[in-house]
Amino acid sequence: MLQKAATLAKKLQIPCPPGPAAPPQLVYTERGLELRLQLGGPDTVGTSVLHIDFIGGRSGYRHARNCTINQPLARAVGIRPGVRPTVFDATAGMGADAFVLACLGCRVTMNERSPVVGALLADAIDRALQDPDIAPIFRDRIRLVIGDAQAALRTMSDPPDTIYIDPMYPHGGTSALNSKEMRIIRAIVGDDVDGGELLAQALLTAAQRVVVKRPKGAPLLGERPPSHQVLMKNSRFDVYLRRHL
Fold first, then answer.
1. CA distance 120 to 49
2. Phi-psi group of 173: left, alpha or beta (phi > 0 → left; psi -120 to 50 → alpha; rest → beta)
3. Which end of the chain is more exposed for a tag (fewer CB within 10 A), N or C?
4. Helix (H, G, I), strand (E, B) or coil at 128
5. Has this prediction a pTM greater than 0.90?
């Protein structure tokens, strides 16, 4: 583990071991790579932990129990009987939606611009590849890319059928992530102030459609009206069809 930590620290250009006043910290544990940081002010007690797990936890449960082409996510990206679009997930985050789409048969590129969150995803994928039940999904249908999504889209020679965007929700919005996980990711990544620009580039690149996930009641990303919406209790998918542009 020490060698893995040293290699990762060199790659991300962070100190190893970190100093006592150098949160956040990436730590290798028996369950895999964890991100640890203190949320709130200096008097806050306790450390918050972010850990990605595709084998167990919510993503594992979702894979086992809720993979159906009738769910809103599948309908939004264009899955239907006999059709599995290629998907570019421009804002991978915890990777849960990308994992579900891959479980349903889509080939998915997960793009994450934060090197720290990308390291958590890479470690989770490495562990998933050791599990015989889900290893084929990650080996054959999932690719992880770390970097700026707009730059990746501008240089694509083979555009994906669907580009999926799940930008950081506005402050106070609800999310599929619990509030602590969202606060941790926001502390590391910041707000997606360039969401409108990302949508504009996605609309120029996607072969068939762009899908934007938004909280219920949130304004349209970039003030662009979608072709249609897939509504859920606390959120929605704004769907932009290329043939309607």
1. 12
2. beta
3. N
4. helix
5. no
User: For residues 245 and 240, what is the distance between their CA atoms, to the nearest angstrom?
Assistant: 8
> CA nearest 213: which of 160, 186, 173, 184?
173
pLDDT digits (tens, 9 = 90+) for 88-139: 999 999 999 999 999 999 999 999 999 999 999 999 999 999 999 899 999 9
Sheet with 32-37, side-by-side order of all strands: 25-29, 32-37, 48-50
Would residue 143 be called left, alpha or beta, if left means φ above 0 and alpha means ψ between -120 and 50 degrees?
beta
Which H or E run contains 184?
helix 179-189
Place of tokens 């470690």: 123
Neighbouring-strand partners of residue 32 = 29
Compute the half-sphere exposure of residue 136: CA atoms within 13 Å on the CB side of its CA.
Answer: 5
Residue at token pair 């239907």: 80
Quick check: 215 and 170 in contact, CB under 8 A? Answer: yes
209 neighbors 77 (Cβ within 8 angstroms): yes
